[in-house]
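Sample intake sheet
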Amino acid sequence: MVGARGQFDVVADEALVFSKQQEQRFPEADEIIDALRSLPS
């Protein structure tokens, strides 16, 4: 999905995993994978 302000959000199971707008940066290489693994199954 394309954002209007260069927004970069990662959402899984309707939960926000990472937001560039909130963090003011792009995620580190393994940050998204680690966050996804920590989600309840």
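Comment: The beta strands are 9-12, 15-19. The longest strand covers residues 15-19.
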